[in-house]
């Protein structure tokens, strides 16, 4: 059965990351001017694009296990990720973009954590679980992985991406394909996304980038 129907890439192409960047540059401005809902959506998307991580990995980010540096911030995942079957939990590094403060995921994270957004909602005792993402609704409880996926998908839709064709998981292909097209070494992309083999990236995630506003169709939707 595996030989007759082997796993196939879900998409023939991917969307252009620049449409989301334009959304943040033109409509979302600096993080300190955003509502908590807007800031939550923006941070979820920037983390997804800068780390090429699953929503389920972003869900695991816990402020107890983060370490800031001049270069960025590193999170040790609180538990094994969705795709990891053995070994210690992986870490996720988010690079600081000093020249692009509006698009900087670390600056956005700091605004979300400290300035005014979620600090007063967080547990005060040391050692207590402190998940990064909290609901922007009343009571501000930790959100589920599916909620983070919805936030990312909503941002994609606002940017004009066809969310009937692409869901939150497509950020991995979009981000890694854009990075490769701008000359980022494959080894750096594999390390960032947590892929152990180059073939995984090239077979399932490295896709041609469609021009904005063109129809983009998942593979198999018209060929079956």
From TrEMBL:
Keywords: DNA recombination. Pfam families: Phage_integrase. Residues 7-219 form the Tyr recombinase domain. It comes from the Eukaryota. SUPFAM superfamilies: DNA breaking-rejoining enzymes (SSF56349). Gene3D superfamilies: Intergrase catalytic core. GO terms for molecular function: DNA binding. GO terms for biological process: DNA integration; DNA recombination. This is Tyr recombinase domain-containing protein. It comes from Amphimedon queenslandica (Sponge).
């Amino acid at each position: 059965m595996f030989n007759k129907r082997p796993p196939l890439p879900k998409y023939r192409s991917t969307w252009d990351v620049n449409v989301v960047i334009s959304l943040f540059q033109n409509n979302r401005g600096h993080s300190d001017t955003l509502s908590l809902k807007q800031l939550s959506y923006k941070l979820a998307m920037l983390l997804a694009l800068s780390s090429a991580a699953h929503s389920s990995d972003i869900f695991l980010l816990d402020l107890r296990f983060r370490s800031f540096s001049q270069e960025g911030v590193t999170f040790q995942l609180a538990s094994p990720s969705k795709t990891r079957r053995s070994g210690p939990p992986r870490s996720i590094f988010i690079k600081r973009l000093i020249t692009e403060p509006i698009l900087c995921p670390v600056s956005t994270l700091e605004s979300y954590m400290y300035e005014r957004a979620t600090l007063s909602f967080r547990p005060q005792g040391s050692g207590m679980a402190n998940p990064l993402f909290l609901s922007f609704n009343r009571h501000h409880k930790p959100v589920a992985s599916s909620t983070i996926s919805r936030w990312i998908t909503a941002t994609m839709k606002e940017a004009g991406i066809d969310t009937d064709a692409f869901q939150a998981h497509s950020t991995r292909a979009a981000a890694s394909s854009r990075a490769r097209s701008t000359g980022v070494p494959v080894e750096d992309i594999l390390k960032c996304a947590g892929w152990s083999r180059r073939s995984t990236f090239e077979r399932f995630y490295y896709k041609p980038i469609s021009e904005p506003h063109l129809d983009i169709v998942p593979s198999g939707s018209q060929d079956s």
